[in-house]
Protein 1
Amino acid sequence: MTAPLIDPFQRAIDYLRVSVTDRCDFRCVYCMSENMTFLPKKELLTLEELDRVCSAFIRMGVKKLRITGGEPLVRRGIMTFFHEMSRHLDSGALNELTLTTNGSQLGRFAQDLHGAGVRRINVSLDTMDADKFAQITRWGRLPQVLNGIDAAQRAGMRIKINAVALKGFNEDELFPMVEWCHARDMDLTFIEVMPMGDIGNENRLDQYWPLKDLRATLAQQYTLTDLAERTGGPARYVRLEETGQKIGFITPLTHNFCESCNRVRLTCTGELFMCLGQEDMADLRPALRDNPSSDAPLEEAIRAAINLKPKGHDFDYSRQEVAGQMSRHMSHTGG
Ligand code: SAM
Ligand code: SF4
């Protein structure tokens, strides 16, 4: 192992999120427009190149690897990649190999993912109503996702449901979703909608349901205890005393979490984003492709990029307008 990655603000970077494809079998209204132009396949890092970059990060101290997208499970051959990455779990270099998925392909892949050492996954699900699900994902079908969740639990994986809090859309499902997650022994985290990418005719402010309001509603029925637990990420957790379950809040807009940030994000084309809320990135592809038989230039490029990690993001809706808007879609960096 080489020297660990420390950024200019003394934050140790030990968490890498990798978007392995920009493509998806859904078109969630807050994430994509209906007609998306995806990257030509030749632009993508090959699975071997992804392996080289991830392995370099792991040599430099990354302990947690999250595979995301787009929808990671629609990338051809992705299970080969998971199986390759599991060697880093076996060696003890990596503590956790995980993914964020819309759940549509879990029926096919859950068992195999477990076989590759994946033990906890995040499944994105904003509503449990089949019609509303079709409306919010445009192309998704709820029964397929619920089957996927069943398959993942049967395979022995722990599930965290991620739900985007959407004003006027899933406000009325707050308690049913909390109860459903409790009944199935799944954690639940709510996410504030973020200004990522052009989403066609949808208006961000129309979608924005601040989590402080969601939390106040939750407190009408449950006793909430703040937990000290941090994952180095944007989530803050509470325990519902009546049920003992843990609920997370990802609040990039009402609460700034950058001081403890431990992560960077790699896109499927080899761009490294040091902050979800800034446009700056470092392109790792030249170092990778120009040096097929040496990873030293790649490691140098990674170190140089980490030295540029900014202090934080500039998202702000507080003046009733969207500030800090990003031109990229969430599916580009994987959220
Ligand atoms: N397709 C996978 C999925 O949906 O889980 C992985 C990629 S998706 C971009 C990762 C997460 O980002 C999902 O939980 C999704 O709900 C969330 N997301 C997408 N666009 C968002 C936005 N504009 N604001 C907040 N969360 C968003
Ligand atoms: Fe696809 Fe995930 Fe974006 Fe929905 S949130 S369109 S499932 S990438």
Protein 2
Amino acid sequence: MPVIVDAFDVNALVTAAGVIRKGGLVAFPTETVYGLGADASNPIAVAGIFEAKARPKIDPVIVHVSDPAMAAKYGIFPPAALPLMNHFWPGALTLVVPKTTAVPSIVTAGLDTVAIRVPSHPAALAFLRACGCAIAAPSANAFGYASPTTAQHVAESLGNKVDLILDGGPCSIGVESTIVSLSGPIPAVLRAGGVPVEELSSIVGEIRVLIGTEERPVVPGQLRRHYATRTPLEIVDENAEVLNPSEQIGLLCLVEPANRLPYKAIEILSPSGNLREAAANFFGALRRLDALSLDRIIARPLPQQGLGLALMDRLQRAAARE
Ligand code: TXA
Ligand code: MG
């Protein structure tokens, strides 16, 4: 198994920075999900990320920086970016902007835009500062599977394919960053995530939402089937449920269900119905249900507001057939 070290230990951060400098891979905590990091300016190191995740090379990765000044080395930020950077950085917002020549093409999968964010997790910031370079990082899971929100999830998913795992505890937000493209005239949400769309529009005014589960992805990497469990998953409303008594079923729901009896296992995301708490528990709950070798997982639809939009997006992709 890979080496797991305390992300808040200074010596561990020095070791991690050494691994990055030599072109290795370090998994690190962020407030959203754990990332699988490599030196963003080293194309061979970034190629290692794609290999470790078995990720298609058409799927660009996010560049993580410690502050807006460092972001400006890699992206060309239009004036519309300023209020967003001021309000949401550090935090769960990724901005897609035209790239500079400092970004190798493998990072952006050949696109002329780059996705950049400043994470807010203190250990992520300390790691970025210790490295002194930008870190290219997708979520630290095998491609297509549920994202990791603990160091243990990373170890289970990637094993020895990662050189070092920085353990910073469970991620506080629990879903990936919201991705907003500023490459067109009107800001466009490409992925629902940790910053609710309602909060974005209160800062930028007009914003387009380009998410959904169309047959064809709107942006590279936004595949219809993603975040998938090995156990088949369906989103079923309580009133529409038809159960086969011979099946072993796991239930994923926001609050306590009316009837517990039909289910072999139940994961309640937030007893009080709080969508932030639900997001923080989401991927862990999915993974626990998936580990039970059940016949089916049934997920109850979630309210599509606040973080619920990001959670429903993940559920719909997890439920999509190949
Ligand atoms: O919260 C997060 O965003 C986490 C943590 C580790 O920061 N990272 C993450 O990365 O979720 P990943 O690889 O799982 O998702 C990155 C996605 C790509 O699949 C793609 O949809 C989008 O970001 N992306 C990256 N560069 C892009 C670009 N130039 N244009 C459009 N979309 C881009
Ligand atoms: Mg991912």
Protein 3
Amino acid sequence: MKTLTLRRPDDWHLHLRDGDVLKAVIGDTSRHFARAIIMPNLVPPVVTTSDARAYRERILAALPAGDRFEPLMTLYLTEHTDPDDVEEGGKSGLISAVKLYPAGATTNSHGGVRDFNKAMPVLERMAKIGLPLCVHGEVTTPEVDIFDREAVFIETVLDPLRKRLPELKVTMEHVTTADGIDYIKSSERNLAGSITTHHLIINRNAILVGGIRPHYYCLPVAKRENHRLALRAAATSGDARFFLGTDSAPHVDPLKECACGCAGIYTSVNTMSCLAHVFEDDNALDKLEAFTSLNGPAWYGLKPNEETITLEKRDGPVKFPDKRDSGAGPITVFDPMFPLHWDVA
Ligand code: NCD
Ligand code: ZN
């Protein structure tokens, strides 16, 4: 049997939610991952250091007995965020990053930023203390086609912001386009990108061909095949500016299978199996550890995990549950549409 041992991976972009859903999903991450950057888009969002401290306690309380997992907390940037609170959270080690959602860009983002001038004092303080900004990189202007929103964001928001504040460390999260990859590669410093599992596997056909398939709908929405290939090339290259952020985003089925379904794909269950498959397909299994376990910690100024996990390639396909039950309803697990043979031992 083929095996592959890696340092224990981390997830640099994860939605754990709260309450019943948190309890149902946390074990799927803590089973394989040592740490994760936790997204703050709860209802209401995690906006202050004290909100983040309380949420962190709820996450730790929901962990399955015996699992060791470190939630790396983020704050949801608003036009009213207090720079002193951010600095205190950052310096105490509780806060690992601040998350920028352009208002209206995605699930629970209506409290995000409309006028970037209002956020400048916080961003300047973050640049000063070296606290990274995690960015949902899409404009929300109705005139801009949804498939172009990332490229337009880079040109009209991100690049001007980085020119104005070159010392700010920016993580461009869930990059979905060749434009995003090229922009990150063209930058010498203070810019990196996370890439999801599902954007390495699906293009927009998965959502739209043969019927509308809500479980492949997420934001940023999957793009054309040439973009998927650019993401794969970046992820499997070993380039230290790219690392895994699953963006695993559970929603219960009734909220996805309806006339106006939520964006988000639940990939925590089989992410490591999917990634081993993708990297093997691209003859890059030797680069998997950089993507899942080395590049992210280096970017966030942390040590890689000392523990390891071992992946095994089985002859027969590995079975995963189709759904995860939660007290709030079933959550559909990502189906890569090909059999998976790799599993975590
Ligand atoms: C995320 C969610 O559901 O919170 N949805 C998604 O499609 N990725 C929000 C986000 O990261 O955009
Ligand atoms: Zn997300």
